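User: Could you walk me through two proteins back to back? I'd like the raw sequence and the structure tokens for each, with a short line separating them so I can tell where one ends and the next begins.

Assistant: Of course. Protein one, sequence then structure:
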Amino acid sequence: MQFAEAPGLVDLGLDHLNLIQRVGLRDDVLAGFFNNESGEVFKGFALNDDDVLLDYGCGSGGPLEFCLGRAGRIIALDSDAAVLDQCRELLNGKTTSSIDFMLADGAFIDLPDETASKVMCLEVLEHVDDPDTTLSELTRIGNDGCLYLISVPDPRSEEVLKQLAPRAAFEKPHHVRIIQPTEFRSMVEGAGLEIQSQTFVGGFSSVFTAIYFSRIDALGLNGVCSIVKEIAYADPVLSAWAKAWNDILDGEYGYEIKRMIDLMIPKSQVIIARKNRPTLSE
């Protein structure tokens, strides 16, 4: 039986990053994120010049870097003024896309109905008080045919991290709920969206995060609930895991092993959904 060979770091244009960054990004690309040729943020979610893209909970803007110049207009929205400033600093001056930065407090989004043609909501719903209200607002803002890219942490990795991370990591303002795959589908469909696909990704990141939280005392980060990248990137144990994963991906069956680990202990579950205008009979 022949197996597809996983593209290498040079093939993906990632060889300029540090080891952990490039292996993590390589893993994301192999999972379906950030396809330069097709303009897909994730497989099935492509951007074009006519798109108005809303990124709800944009954080410091990492995924939006890929969207620069691909969407005609970008609306970057977050409830944290400090991280929104980081997003603004990262994105401003890098693109011909029109970018608006919005600070939002609570689920209400101060945008007219049918503003966006594409909506991203990545790793947000596990933080909010009322995910159903949030999804309802996102549906209101999407136009007819609007495509949605929504992700939340997967319960398989979350249950492991609950044993390793500080208790506060599963309290406000961090993760306040663990969302089961069937519940995730019900939430999205309950908002009136039609699910196109549900994918499980990020086995590499699940193990990476588990190792990180098992070592936070050794790293001098006792009680810290998030990954401090500058420290994590320098840690020899985390670097060893990244090197091991890269070696696996370089191997003959690397891509098949990745698919297996992603299904066993995914970091995230990803849904692509579409808003369709109800017919008169509905």
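----
Protein two, same layout:
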Amino acid sequence: MNQAIAGRMQRAASVLGFDPFAVEQGSYEWHKMRLGVITASKAHILTMKPSSETYRKYMAELCAEIATGAPMEEISSKAIAWGREHESSAIATWEMINGQPLARVPLIYGETMREACSPDAVNGSLGWETKCPLITTHHVMTLVDGTIKKEYRWQCQYSIRVSGFEGWIFNSFDPRMKKNQLASILVDPVEADQKTLADAVPQFVHEMDKMLKSIGHEFGDQWSSKYE
């Protein structure tokens, strides 16, 4: 891990009270690290109109996490369960094909703790994201013409922004395929997308801080000992 990220995570440790590199994705500590933080999986929402219901709802969810110190309850689905079940197999398949071990990193904060991404793995200066589609049609489309769903494209671009990595490897994995179970695409930073995020993130943070103030809170309360 480069020195810039190591420095950010060391500063975060003083706020969190534990080593952020020592936790596992999905653990209590990992969820605590994400409280009220704009994460890569929701980056596509930042590109929506600020007046849209989805935009305001996501902002309210982050404010609720800060106000309660607890993550919003996740709505499970068959697709989510399928993806989690096969994610480790996708990583193992990539390692076998490429002959390279992948490092695991639970979460990476951006320049501040307002932004974060959780790569499935790290390969040198590249992040790694895998999706295991429930419907094989989506995997075939990725194999044939490199199709990446819009929200996943924004997830990769946002992760590049947060981490400062050179690029992101997007993977589609389907263990039901008799051949070509894994499709890997290198996602490079796109100047226009990075510019969109550079404008959208500060605007979202500004509006979120106003929402927090209206309910008597501020960013950081989710980790503050004064509420314990």
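Strands lie at 38-39, 108-109, 115-117, 121-123, 126-131, 167-173, 182-187.

Let me know if you want the two compared in more detail.
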